[in-house]
Design goal:
There is one protein chain. The chain is α/β, with parallel strands linked by helices. The chain has a single domain (2-294), classed as Rossmann fold, CATH 3.40.50. Helix content is 37%, strand content 21%. The protein is built from 9 helices and 10 strands. Strands 3-2-1-4-5-10-9-6-7-8 form a 10-stranded mixed sheet, sandwiched between helices. α8 links the parallel β9 (247-252) and β10 (279-282). α7 crosses α8. The longest helix is centred in the N-terminal third of the chain and has 23 residues, at 52-74. The chain is elongated and about 70 Å long. Mean pLDDT is 82; it is low at 289-296.
């Protein structure tokens, strides 16, 4: 399992590293995890600069980055494999997507925007670009995230549209390989259709039926539970559920996504801003390599 971690010299970068460590440590065989700490410098490498002043500036940025990237590497505990990389690109998102391809990685991990409230997400430009273009899962660490020793539960938000099965499959494999329970949830917003008097009951029944089918399909592979949470809004429904600091939430991308990329839909956006725990967004129709080869999908 190989993780690309977007490293910045701030709390956001440390939060991303903390999430990568937690995901790697919780694997059945953490020694096989690889953490690629990647810092992106905007612009061209010094050797490709158009002027002497630009060359000097870009070289200064690279030398500075090398110093604090060594500090970032020191955050990785013994027993986990990690390396640092400095790349030049027009934007951080472009550079991280390039690293994703270069290293044939399974996931890219970034922190929430540094202006976000404590333990909540504010999607910055980098995360937003990744969430609309990445061909692989994107993991987001919320503001203030320190990271547990390991992940102890995986929660999967189950949708009812085409392509929803793929995120459940990834969640099941991820829970099974970590020997942690899987919780399937369906969120029901009661303001979805004010013109239907039976909308609340219909939505809850439909959500429960979807969860029941999912449980039957995965019960023989890992310990699984299911919850239907309802509230006036998606955000209110999220507040109804209990959340462990050591869990992550997985959700599929919107049906508007190009195959096999991510496109963050309305529900996912609402969830993102209300969740107190990390979120992993899975591309639509994501087909990961077999678990036996990758050891895990997240």
């Amino acid at each position: 399992m190989k993780y690309i971690v977007g490293c910045t010299e701030d709390q956001r970068g440390r939060e991303a590293i903390s999430l990568a460590i937690a995901l790697a440590r919780s694997l059945a065989f953490p020694i096989y995890a690889e953490i690629e700490l990647v810092h992106i410098i905007r612009g061209v490498p010094p050797e490709d600069a158009m002027s002497e002043s630009e060359r000097v500036y870009q070289d200064f940025q690279r030398q500075t980055a090398r110093k604090w990237m060594s500090k970032a590497l020191a955050l990785i505990p013994q027993g986990l494999k990690a390396e640092t990389h400095i790349r030049f690109a027009d934007s951080m998102a472009e550079g991280l997507l390039g690293a994703l391809t270069e290293f044939k990685a399974d996931m890219v991990i970034v922190g929430a925007a540094s202006t976000g409230p404590f333990r909540r997400f504010t999607v910055g430009s980098v995360a937003n670009a990744l969430l609309h273009a990445s061909p692989m899962p994107v993991a987001l660490a919320p503001s203030g995230y320190q990271g547990p020793r390991a992940i102890t539960r995986i929660t999967c938000a189950v949708g009812t549209r085409t392509g929803a099965d793929s995120v459940v499959e990834v969640a099941v494999d991820s829970a099974a390989i970590r020997h942690v329970p899987l919780r399937l949830i369906s969120l029901v917003a009661l303001d979805r259709d004010p013109h239907r008097s039976d909308d609340e009951n219909w939505a809850r029944r439909h959500a429960q039926q979807t969860l029941d089918r999912a449980v039957v399909g995965v019960a023989n592979r890992t310990l699984v539970t299911a919850d239907v949470a309802q509230g006036k809004t998606i955000e209110a429904a999220i507040e109804v559920l209990d959340w462990d600091e050591s869990e992550v939430v997985m959700i599929g991308s919107s049906r508007l996504a190009s195959r096999p990329q991510i496109f963050l839909g309305t529900t996912a956006n609402k969830m993102l801003r209300a969740l107190p725990v990390p979120m992993v967004v899975i591309p639509r129709f994501h087909v990961p390599v077999p678990a036996a080869a990758s050891l895990a999908h997240i």
